[in-house]
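Why do we bother with a discrete structure alphabet at all? Because it lets us treat a fold like text: something you can write down, compare, and reason about line by line. To make this less abstract, here is a complete entry for Methylmalonyl Co-A mutase-associated GTPase MeaB. Read it the way you would read a sentence in a foreign language you are learning: slowly, and without expecting to understand everything at once.
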Amino acid sequence: MKETLRTIPAGTGGNISPRKAVRRRVLSTDELVDGVRAGDRTILSRAITLVESRNPKHFEQAQAVLARLMPHTGGSQRIGITGVPGVGKSTFIEAFGKNLTGAGKKVAVLAVDPTSARSGGSILGDKTRMNELSIDPNAYIRPSPSSGYLGGVNRMTRETILLCEAAGFDVVLVETVGAGQSETMVAQMTDFFLVLMLPGAGDELQGIKKGVLEIADLIAVNKSDADPAKAREAKREYSSALRILQPTSKHWRPQSVMVSALINDGLDTIWDLINQHRAVMEKEGEFTAKRARQQRDWMWTMLRDRLLETFTHRDDVASRLSALEADVLSGTTNPTAAVEELLGLIKTTGQA
């Protein structure tokens, strides 16, 4: 593989303008695998960037890296965390993460930032919102753009989880953009799904979708220190709602608890419940079954993504796609007719 050496212009004292591209040596597959296994944060970040890349040239190496690291994955607690806007997810994750690192755990945080539908950019500001955790030697924060994917999940979040596990992280926290039906995607790739809510249950129950409560393993009413009476009422309301919903497992009844990330109250209880859930799921054989389903879901997600990518990059499809988009926008063609024409190209190819 051709290597590009990182160079620093003479006379700069090592300070390079951020506008000037810094060329780095391309790492071999062996270097990436060995670096991730050694827990090298810089190489882990580069491995994640590699698997997130849509560049076809990077795909083959990314798959080779993942294949080599797969035997070293699966040892973490995978925890999904979501919540309504303003609930304090970042504050919670920082306090929760510091509790875990203080107990000797290595914690990875995969914080997905929403990608702008207009500009295609994202803020990626999670490290600035988790100042203390970001400098903790036993923590790793990886902000990634959601790239428009439902549930605020980057297209390669599953692969990123595996890379973090191979790097030796005991707990992987996946923070999502916000509560909604599409958060089922997060629940499908984690072992435990935590929903953070605010006091004021009446308004919140009207605003949250039923699907999120159905997949929650635990609801935590955050900021309970601000108004304990409202927090207790919210806890009762959520407990009542959970009792009438069908749980995801017959062996685990989701509950609601009161916490305050700001004063670090109740976070140990959440960790105890996560461990209780893990013990129950392993005892009943559901943990292994769920991990197997995660692999299956990963396969189907990748298949759909790769099929769409391969199809739209075909010369005959690409040449018609932009014209059909223009026709749909102008109203001269309806979406169904446009899709049928494109699918007709597959049928024509198959007959040929």
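What the structure line is telling us, in plain words: Confidence is low (pLDDT under 50) at residues 1-22, 115-125, 148-152. The radius of gyration is 23 Å.
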